[in-house]
Amino acid sequence: MVVAALFTAIALAACGPGTGSGSDGGNGPRIALLLPDATTARWETQDRPLLEKNIEELCGDCSVEHVNAKGEVALQQEQMHSMIAKGVDTIVLVAVDARSLRPAVRKADEAGIPVIAYDRLAEGPISGYVSFDGEEVGRLQGRALLEAMDDDNTPSGQIVMMNGDPSDPNAVSFKKGALSVLTGRVKIGKEYDTLQWRAEAANLNMSAAISALGVGNIHGVYAANDGLAAGSISALRANKVEPLPPVTGQDAELRAVQRIVSGHQYMTVYKPFAPEASGGAAMAVAAVRGESLDRVAPDEVKSSTGKTVPALMLTPVSVTVDNIKNTLVKDGVYTVRQICTSHLMAACDKAGLT
Questions:
Q1: What are phi and psi of 153, to 5 degrees?
Q2: Which residues, 6+ apart, have CB-to-CB distance to 101 below 8 Å?
Q3: pTM for this entry
Q4: Within its chain, how far is the Cα of 193 from the centroid?
Q5: What is the pLDDT of residues 234-284, one digit of tens each?
Q6: 307 burial class (0-12, 13-18, 19+ CB within 10 angstroms)?
């Protein structure tokens, strides 16, 4: 409710004269949106349209220029330099590699262009940050995995850890949070870092883990997001690992939710996209208008420069088959019809998704 009130206040403050065409362009302020890749579904299907919609509602004469780095650091560096050269008024950045983008963030700051770090804490002199508590995401995943393994009567099981890209600060936080729960409770048989969060790499690594550990000796899989979960589950099934061990995930992708219903994936972490996009939009518009970010970003984080910057830190939610209806469906992320395709009808009935 507090967050909603803050966003409402910004919306009211932003209302006023303006004849721009929002995301379609115009002569008003320009906001650049730099997304990291096209392999993670949320960026183009959730975050981008929500950010564009919220920015347009808050600033009728603002326009949004969107680019996607497709997982390539060099391409995103070029995109940053291009936006700076164009003289955009604010940059909303989801960094492919926080460290590599630091010089570009510094250049934007020198040019007087505020950079809002979105979802991932970019390095350099950023002006604001909006995201979820990454360590809490990892803790939720770790706790869920332990609960699932306990249900399987595996008191001291062995797991495979499929971590994200180590160049992503969020992946580091997820891993730290997960290990704070898992260390001393399970044996980590194999552990992998996954460059660019590629599901194909997770598939290959899981196949290698199965070969090394044995088909019957993997009792759980910590997968840092739903893409890595998909790659891991594909390898487990291809190698005829039965029953499938519990597998974690993150991002609440539709296919992951369907895997949870079918029993192939145990859980995912839902990070409500709407409040994150609302927060990112509110910060971007405030920055464009030269306003303080403090009233839309009540939290604080310390940037890599040592400076404390305004932040909005949101709370993630653990989703299993038992609470899909009261989380994702209730929030309007997916309808029951979207989740329950014809081959899942029996499983959906069992899960109460009717």
A1: 55, 45
A2: 73, 76, 77, 80, 93, 95, 122, 123, 124
A3: 0.80
A4: 17
A5: 999 999 999 999 999 999 999 999 999 999 999 999 999 999 999 999 999
A6: exposed
